[in-house]
Specification:
It is a single chain. The chain is α+β, with helices and mostly antiparallel strands. The chain is 54% helix and 11% strand. It has 21 helices and 13 strands. The strands form three sheets. It has a seven-stranded mixed beta sheet, sandwiched between helices. It has a three-stranded mixed beta sheet with strand order 1-9-12. The protein has a three-stranded antiparallel beta sheet with strand order 2-11-10. A hairpin with an 8-residue loop joins β5 and β6. It is elongated and about 110 Å long. The mean pLDDT is 88.
Length: 655
């Protein structure tokens, strides 16, 4: 096989010499040889995808170097057009051959040549050629899509479309940054030609519909719909980018005025059309939106690698542009249409999935009360304060409807047992790892475990009322367990301390407590000491009777050679546990000793529920919005003698 890289290096080197010497014909001849060699590589790669990836990357770099050489030697239009034409020929051939690697690298070279044309020489006949070449490839991609007749070919066509649109958005970005009105005009003209993605059905000519599965036709339609939406999103992003740069004093008012009044207002003539594209961003684009890096890259270029700080466009200038341009569009005619319309007719989405976005927009629109950047687009008679108030009212109605839908869906939905099971598992995990009193009872032999539970209800240790939303599925919403676990532990401690036989002591100070503990240790020889965590912990550790380290795992201290466990509790300050004849059992099933029962709030006796139909119940804090969560312990404790000594601080004593 010929050494293609050597041949390509030879012709690229000769092309560079032709540029330096101003020999246009020699440059064209060498570019023809380069295009011919790349075509051979594309032919060979059909049977071995990505085989020549490094050579395509080499060609991209050398094409860009050639273009830089032309720019440095007078930026001759004919020479630059020759380079555009050479690259474009191979872009077209790579597209026709479905060689995605070659298509990507060569299209990258083509677009970057455009970007490097600014600020000098700027838009001229050569860049007119660039947009024509871009349009030729765009039409070819559309024709390819029209002819797709199989799932495999649809996947390849989709990859080409994704790659092409990926570079188109870079042209949008820099056309705006360079305030190039001609480029903006060509972009709009090119992207009007998307008829191939507007048909209702996509069938190759001459073939009946029954030759294709419904699944394939639907998939092809989905791709086409997504392409149209992505093109609108690109325009929306370009206008947002221009708005951001204008607010930062990078773009001129004249350019922004022309862009918005000549193009943005034509593409998005109503708040409804603007809103549709704004909310399409979340569903159409996968992952982080591509424009989130634009501001960071721009600032890095300006700072030449120095530190910069910026926020993500999706959370800052994208919604800011959306609201600012909505206010511009929301004239008296728009207001009359929507101020008295029903929820379904509002220009904003009103589903429960949109309520967070709507709420955020309601908060953000207030920023324009003091400073409205697009005021220069309005006539002198427009009161922006009144527009803000009117648009806020419509937004608020949309949000209220979305919130009510979410509330009613939760109310009408049954409690999902999977979520109840998750809560039960989490509570048992926390119980196993956090309850030091339970562990101490096991250590002194009071508490045993058995595998198979008898048919018993167990002991109620806690009742809580979390929101029902935590037990109902919601799209793209995680459902973490958010219960107050300390309440459950305190309920368990209350039960245990009530069942054990304990001598109770009240002390006035920590010093008195430590002395009393000393006396009881010498007198009763307890096995374990439990202490309440708190500010007095430091006073304990300063006493010489406390020492670091213990023979018991996780007991980091000892008191007079007895292991010390600590826990956050309000039921005791200190507890000395003895070895006793008391007997306790926990019945374990699937590693769990706690059981959880969830009951809809309206079925409990705790709430004062109004006796009226569900649709008449207020939308906030009704029994329907909560769940009664009862936690029970499968087990018991039977006391048979003195189990220990419990100490508590006097209520009026400092802790």
């Amino acid at each position: 096989m010929p050494n293609y890289e050597d041949y390509l290096e030879h012709f690229f080197t000769d092309a560079e010499a032709a540029i330096r010497e101003g020999k246009g014909q020699e440059l064209s001849d060498n570019l023809s040889h380069i295009a011919e060699l790349i075509g051979e590589l594309i032919n060979r790669e059909v049977d071995s995808p990505t085989r020549f990836r490094s050579i395509y990357a080499f060609c991209r770099r050398r094409y860009l170097q050639l273009y830089n050489d032309v720019l440095e030697n007078g930026a001759d239009e004919d020479l630059r057009s020759s380079i555009f034409n050479s690259i474009s020929v191979n872009v077209r051939y790579a597209r026709q051959s479905n060689d995605l690697e070659a298509f990507d690298q060569l299209l990258n070279a083509l677009v970057n040549c455009y970007i490097r044309s600014f600020p000098n020489p700027g838009f001229d006949e050569a860049l007119e050629d660039f947009f024509e070449r871009l349009n030729v490839n765009q039409r070819g991609i559309a024709q390819n899509f029209e002819k797709v007749d199989s799932v495999d070919r649809l996947a390849k066509s989709s990859n080409l479309i994704d790659t092409f649109l990926g570079y188109y958005r870079e042209v949008w970005r820099y056309a705006v940054e360079y305030e190039c009105r001609e480029s903006v005009l060509r972009l709009h003209e090119n992207l009007k030609e998307v008829r191939a993605f507007e048909q209702a059905r996509y069938l190759p000519l001459g073939r009946p519909e029954n030759q294709y599965s419904e699944e394939f036709l639907e998939e092809k339609q989905e791709v086409a719909d997504a392409v149209r939406k992505r093109i609108q999103i690109q325009k929306f992003a370009a206008y947002s980018w221009a708005y951001n740069l204008y607010v930062k004093d990078v773009l001129s008012e004249d350019f922004l005025k022309d862009l918005f009044q000549d193009h943005a207002e034509e593409e998005f003539s109503t708040v409804k059309s603007l809103t549709e594209t704004y909310f399409d961003i979340r569903t159409v684009l996968e992952g982080l939106p591509y424009w989130d890096d634009w501001e960071m890259e721009r600032q890095l270029e300006e700072s030449r690698g120095g530190p910069v700080m910026t926020s993500m466009g999706s959370n800052s200038w994208i919604p800011s542009f959306y609201l600012a341009f909505s206010l511009y569009l929301f004239d008296e005619g728009e207001q009359e249409v929507f101020l008295d319309s029903g929820p379904e007719e509002l220009p904003f989405p009103t589903t429960e999935d949109d309520r967070l976005d709507l709420d955020s927009l309601l908060d953000s629109i207030e920023e324009f009360e003091d400073d409205y950047p697009l005021e220069f687009l309005l006539d002198g008679q427009t009161d922006i304060g009144e527009r803000i108030e009117a648009l806020s009212e419509v937004l608020d109605r949309a949000f209220s409807h979305a919130e009510k839908q979410a509330i009613m869906r939760v109310r009408n939905h049954s409690i999902d047992p999977d979520y109840v099971d998750s809560w039960e598992q989490e509570m048992n995990d926390q119980f196993d790892s956090s309850c030091q009193l339970r562990r101490a009872l096991k250590e002194v032999g009071v508490l045993k475990q058995k595998r198979f539970p008898p048919d018993l209800d167990g002991v109620k240790v806690s009742v809580g009322y979390p929101q029902k939303r935590s037990f109902v599925p919601e799209d793209q919403v995680d459902k973490p367990v958010t219960t107050n676990f300390r309440r459950i532990l305190e309920g368990y401690r209350e039960y245990v301390l009530r069942r054990l036989t304990l001598e109770e002591r009240t002390v006035e100070s920590i010093e008195e407590l430590i002395d009393e503990m000393d006396s009881e240790v010498k007198k009763r020889n307890p096995s374990i000491v439990l202490l309440q965590t708190g500010e007095h912990r430091r006073q304990f550790l300063e006493d010489e009777r406390f020492e670091r380290g213990s023979d018991m795992d996780d007991a980091h201290f000892s008191f007079m050679d007895r292991p010390v466990l600590t826990e956050a509790t309000d039921h005791y300050t200190a507890l000395l546990l003895l070895e006793s004849e008391s007997h306790g059992v926990e019945y374990i099933e699937d590693g769990r000793v706690l059981t959880v029962t969830a009951t809809p709030g309206e079925e409990t006796d705790v709430f004062d529920m109004p006796n009226q139909p569900l649709k008449s119940v207020p939308y906030t804090n009704a029994p329907y919005d909560f769940v009664q969560l009862e936690v029970r312990l499968r087990g018991f404790i039977d006391n048979r003698g003195l189990d220990g000594v419990v100490f508590r601080m006097s209520s009026d004593s400092p802790s």
